[in-house]
């Protein structure tokens, strides 16, 4: 029966199914884009036909490919054309002089002529040995004739130079908007360089864009960023209308070979609604009656999965919202700084209720415990319970309190953690928040113990796409200085891998087709050159991707 015979059979290595009931098997057969058989070698070999390729894993490890639980795919086509001013190991920067060098080299290498924007990504003062923010003067010193914008690693702010501020119309008379931050020159009122949150959002939206064709031409390279790391389902986790339009065009032109899950940003929903539902009626979000029908189904590898809400900012930027003050001054030198929500609580309550009533899944960004309280109250006011199976995802949930785990269980909230923070910013969090709060960052072990399903994410481009660093950080929780940021919250590698596979699949309602190796599921698999569940913890970071398959088709080969 030629139709039933496998295209490929994998054998001869470690095979992790990510299924708790049967973690390891001897062989897997795939065909027609799906998994045909999983189990003992003899049993799986029965699917072998004349044309079946038997792939000897040769000691390598096969497992389900990774699912991006939260990140910003729309940044990928752009970032390929930006300067990397991230700190080690995500980039080359340790001080302001490094930033200056990177920018000068970037302008030379790309022949960017004066007057054209130079964009950088990954800026973060905590990577700088100078002990101060990079300023407009630092950037003017090297690029006086180009407008420059260095996007903050949180994607919630940027540093601009003089030409950049002039291009955006920011000067001494520009008021700081509510919920925003504009650092001013000492003794003056000129913007000094760093702007954050609501002061940043409009200028980011106003950035001159590459042409659609230029962006579409980067889609192959953009998807390779993920495929080369074993990731075959990617997320655009705060989709703007213009990004959705671009990704739809790429999808319609057949340029997507990975699955893209888009989660439109709440502020953009009215715009999207106007585009797709001209006859809408509804509340403050203007959701039409049948809005939910647009969600949950792939078309040409793109689907809308839910609506993204945002309650607060970033902890490393000190713009998250906590109940207890920081131990260090706020971003403007404030004493007893607790941060602040991005929107008034009343508006968040209205948004959550309207989205929930429309039957659409919510993905809500909350970093600080006060932000999480706002969301918990909003979910309770909207009448949510765990029994509804809404799978409301609380993105980051980084500085939740232990008592909030009970609320998550009661309301059916599911955390998507950000454990690489322990490495990148763990030392800083301890300094700002103290040991008790820093040690409970992204508390995966406690969440699992409470019975919650939780995923893990890189929040690309906040940190690079790097599943093995996610696994390592969930297992080791080691900071840059070598401190274990909360020994009690370390998890086993198996749990850390589940957070990138079956748990991430569940959060986007794809557990029936992805996340484990099981008969009938999609043949989305990755071959690694090591087994994360059996190597010593500090070797997990050395594990590399050998080959990635999306529905049985090789999409990356080392
Ligand atoms: Zn994000």
From TrEMBL:
Q: Please list the GO terms describing molecular function.
A: hydrolase activity, acting on carbon-nitrogen (but not peptide) bonds
Q: Which InterPro entries match?
A: Amidohydro_3, Metal-dep_hydrolase_composite, Metal_Hydrolase, YtcJ-like
Which stretches make up the Amidohydrolase domain?
53-556
Protein origin, superkingdom? Bacteria
* Record's keyword annotation contains Hydrolase: yes
Q: Does the keyword Hydrolase apply?
A: yes
Keywords of the record, alphabetical order, are: Hydrolase
PANTHER family reported in the protein's UniProt record: IMIDAZOLONEPROPIONASE, PROTEIN LONG AFTER FAR-RED 3
Name of the featured protein: Amidohydrolase
């Amino acid at each position: 029966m030629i139709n039933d015979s496998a295209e490929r059979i994998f054998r001869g290595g470690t095979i992790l199914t990510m299924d708790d009931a049967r973690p390891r098997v001897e062989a897997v057969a795939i065909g027609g884009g799906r998994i045909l058989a999983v189990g003992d070698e003899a049993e799986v070999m029965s699917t072998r036909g004349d044309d079946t390729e038997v792939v000897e894993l040769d000691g390598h490890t096969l497992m389900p490919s990774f699912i991006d639980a939260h990140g910003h795919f729309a940044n990928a086509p752009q970032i390929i054309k930006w300067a990397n001013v991230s700190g080690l190991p995500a980039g080359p920067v340790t001080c302001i002089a490094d930033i200056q060098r990177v920018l000068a080299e970037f302008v030379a290498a790309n022949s960017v002529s004066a007057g054209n924007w130079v964009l950088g990504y990954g800026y973060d003062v905590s990577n700088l040995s100078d002990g101060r923010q990079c300023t407009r003067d630092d950037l003017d010193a090297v690029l006086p004739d180009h407008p420059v914008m260095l996007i903050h690693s949180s994607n919630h702010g940027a540093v601009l130079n003089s030409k950049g501020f002039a291009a955006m119309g920011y000067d001494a008379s520009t008021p700081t908007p509510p919920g925003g931050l504009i650092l001013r020159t000492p003794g003056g009122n000129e913007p000094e360089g760093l702007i954050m949150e609501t002061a940043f959002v409009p200028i980011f939206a106003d950035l001159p864009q590459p042409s659609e064709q230029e962006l579409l031409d980067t889609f192959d390279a953009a998807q390779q960023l993920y495929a080369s790391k074993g990731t075959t389902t990617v997320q655009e986790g705060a989709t703007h209308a213009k990004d959705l339009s671009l990704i739809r065009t790429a999808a319609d032109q057949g340029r997507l070979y990975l699955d893209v899950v888009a989660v439109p940003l709440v502020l953009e929903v009215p715009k999207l609604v106007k585009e797709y539902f001209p006859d809408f009626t509804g509340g403050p979000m203007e959701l039409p009656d049948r809005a939910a029908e647009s969600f949950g189904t792939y078309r040409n590898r793109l689907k809308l999965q839910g609506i993204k809400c945002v309650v607060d900012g970033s902890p490393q930027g000190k713009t998250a919202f906590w109940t207890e003050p920081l131990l260090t001054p706020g971003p403007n030198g404030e004493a007893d700084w607790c941060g602040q929500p991005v929107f008034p609580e009343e508006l968040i309550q209205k948004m959550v209720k309207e989205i929930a009533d429309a039957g659409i899944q919510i993905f809500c960004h909350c970093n600080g415990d006060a932000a999480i309280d706002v969301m918990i109250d909003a979910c309770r006011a909207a009448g949510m319970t765990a029994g509804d199976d809404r799978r409301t995802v609380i993105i980051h949930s980084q500085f939740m309190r232990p008592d909030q785990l009970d609320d998550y269980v009661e309301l059916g909230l599911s955390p998507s953690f950000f454990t690489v923070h322990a490495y990148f910013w763990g030392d800083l969090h301890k300094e700002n928040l103290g040991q008790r709060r820093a040690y409970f960052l992204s508390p995966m072990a406690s969440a699992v113990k409470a019975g919650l399903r939780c995923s893990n994410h890189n929040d690309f481009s906040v940190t690079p796409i790097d599943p093995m660093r996610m696994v390592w950080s969930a297992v080791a929780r080691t900071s840059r200085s070598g401190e274990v940021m909360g020994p009690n919250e370390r998890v086993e590698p198996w749990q850390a891998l589940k957070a990138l596979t079956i748990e991430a699949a569940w959060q986007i309602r794809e557990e029936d087709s992805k996340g484990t190796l099981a008969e009938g599921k999609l043949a989305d698999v990755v071959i690694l050159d090591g087994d994360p569940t059996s190597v010593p913890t500090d070797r997990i970071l050395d594990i590399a991707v050998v080959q990635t398959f999306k529905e049985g088709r090789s999409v990356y080969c080392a």
